[in-house]
Write a structure and sequence with these properties.
The chain is an alpha+beta fold. The chain has six helices and seven strands. The chain has two domains: 35 residues; 149 residues, 3-Layer(aba) Sandwich (NADH Oxidase). It binds flavin mononucleotide.
Length: 213
């Protein structure tokens, strides 16, 4: 007969196991979260394979667990992959042209920018009117959600880099991505398999950034 089971966050609990063995599992899981956070490292050179549909769903579910004042859900995510990356590149070119850029090297770079990773998640701020929760605060929630997505992608073994550029706030780009008037891209997460070595992690000192009140 099967032992009674319950499931939470994808982990199933089997009543026949000792509490001690569960505390070891939980401790190891916590260590691995901390390891991912302490060692996160953006990676610009990304190749196939990108995350599959199941991995993308996990990454986006992690994003949806970000802190969100008032649960306003001020975020929208657009997944761009395959040939649609070319369409995004065309839109980047149009965006530059509208801003007066005619240099062919710059236009070529823009056209190819989305090809730098197999898959991109655009995270948009879709702010709602609210008496006390400002647009800024809602943008912070979207940023927190993209940071969570980035950590989730790393924990699944993918490389990732967050990019913006002048495209992020261009209404043409936002509209092409299906955003509403007033929306903006808080980040384009470029995702894929790391090519080449990772950058060295810098040594960080808390002293420069932390004080005790
Ligand atoms: C809001 C935001 C926008 C960014 N935009 C760009 C960008 O357009 N191009 C870029 O090369 N890096 C951009 N970055 C920085 C990279 O994502 C990354 O943080 C940087 O290369 C440092 O690497 P690290 O994250 O491993 O420390 C941006 C980061 C943030 C948070």
């Amino acid at each position: 007969m099967c032992a009674p089971q319950c499931q939470r966050n994808g982990v199933s609990f089997d009543s026949s196991r000792s509490l001690l063995s569960y505390s070891n599992i939980i401790h190891e899981a916590a260590m691995s979260v901390l390891d991912t956070l302490l060692n996160r490292n953006s990676h610009a050179r990304l190749i196939e394979p990108g995350p599959d549909a199941e991995a993308v769903a996990k990454i986006l579910h992690a994003a949806l667990r970000a802190p969100d004042h008032g649960r306003l859900r001020p975020w929208r995510y657009v997944v761009i992959q395959g040939g649609r990356r070319r369409a995004l590149g065309d839109c980047f070119v149009d965006s530059l042209k509208l801003r007066g850029v005619s240099d062919s090297a710059k236009l070529d770079k823009a056209a190819n920018a989305p090809m730098r990773a197999p898959l991109i998640i655009a995270g948009l701020l879709h702010a709602v009117e609210h008496d006390t929760i400002s647009r800024d605060e809602q943008a912070h929630a979207v940023a927190a959600s993209l940071a969570a997505a980035q950590i989730a992608a790393e924990s699944l073994g993918f490389g990732c880099i967050w990019r913006t550029g002048g495209y992020a706030t261009d209404p043409l780009v936002v509209e092409t991505l299906g955003g509403a008037a007033g929306d903006q891209v808080v980040g384009f997460l470029y995702l894929g398999t790391r090519e080449g070595p990772s950058k060295l992690l810098p040594e960080e000192s808390l002293d420069a950034f932390v004080s005790h009140f």
